[in-house]
Design brief:
This protein is of the alpha/beta class. It has one domain: Rossmann fold, CATH 3.40.50. It has 4 helices and 9 strands; from the N terminus they run αβαβββαβββαββ. Strands 3-2-1-4-5-9-8 form a 7-stranded mixed sheet, sandwiched between helices. It has a two-stranded antiparallel sheet with strand order 6-7. Strand 1, helix 2 and strand 2 form a beta-alpha-beta unit. It is globular.
Length: about 210
């Protein structure tokens, strides 16, 4: 299937998009990517450019790809057919991207990321549910956080103009997604949500 941009450039500059939760998500993306220590990175999905800018400032050579030409990516292309040779980049970042394609196309997208990356792939996805979270900070000690989530496993997801599916909803279980990732040749290193960003789940994979 050929995909087209779902929103215009103005979508990424509005106050609703640049929420506190969004910036928290950026921090976790960048923290996990810094741990991966790539020299070269492909970011799939330009968004408002924050992640690419900050990772570039951290000394990583970032190339961006997106189907939306008006967002100004370095390369125009789709996640299901990445226009790059095999093993072109040390790592790949695809934050809140896969939910914008049909779930039946996700295995192809995972295979493409595995083909183009040399070492690691970082993915984040919407993971809605009922959440209990606790964050505590005691002086001189590290911050403590606790998160408990019940995903909406009984809910059918209806396409809302942007998300074709969301992790944890009926037929889109974490186990099903992980099975596709394993078949694509991705070995899980990290899988977690954070108390300060409970609506997303982050996955760091190693290329095998």
């Amino acid at each position: 299937m050929t995909y087209q941009a779902q929103v215009g450039k103005s979508h990424y500059s509005g106050k609703a998009y640049r929420s506190l939760e969004r910036w928290t998500s950026y921090w976790h993306q960048m923290d996990l990517m810094r741990r991966a220590s790539p020299q070269t990175l492909l970011e799939i999905g330009v968004g408002d450019g924050v992640a690419a800018r900050e990772l570039s400032a951290a000394g990583i050579s970032v190339t961006t790809v997106d189907i939306a030409e008006d967002l100004g990516p370095d390369v125009v292309g789709s996640i299901t057919a990445l226009p790059f040779p095999d093993k072109s980049f040390d790592a790949i970042l695809a934050a809140e991207v896969l939910e914008h394609i049909r779930f039946q196309d996700v295995p192809q997208a995972l295979s493409e990321m595995r083909r183009v990356a040399r070492t690691q792939v970082l993915i984040s996805l919407p993971h809605p549910g009922y959440v209990f979270s606790l964050i505590a900070k005691v002086p001189l000690l590290r911050r403590f956080s606790l998160l408990f989530k019940v995903p909406f496993f009984w809910k059918e997801h209806c396409f809302n103009g942007e998300h074709y599916w969301e992790l944890g909803k009926k037929t889109f279980s974490l186990r099903t997604f992980m099975r596709h990732a394993e078949k694509a040749g991705l070995e899980l290193l990290v899988s977690r949500s954070y108390a300060d960003d409970p609506s997303h789940r982050f996955f760091l994979f190693k290329i095998i």
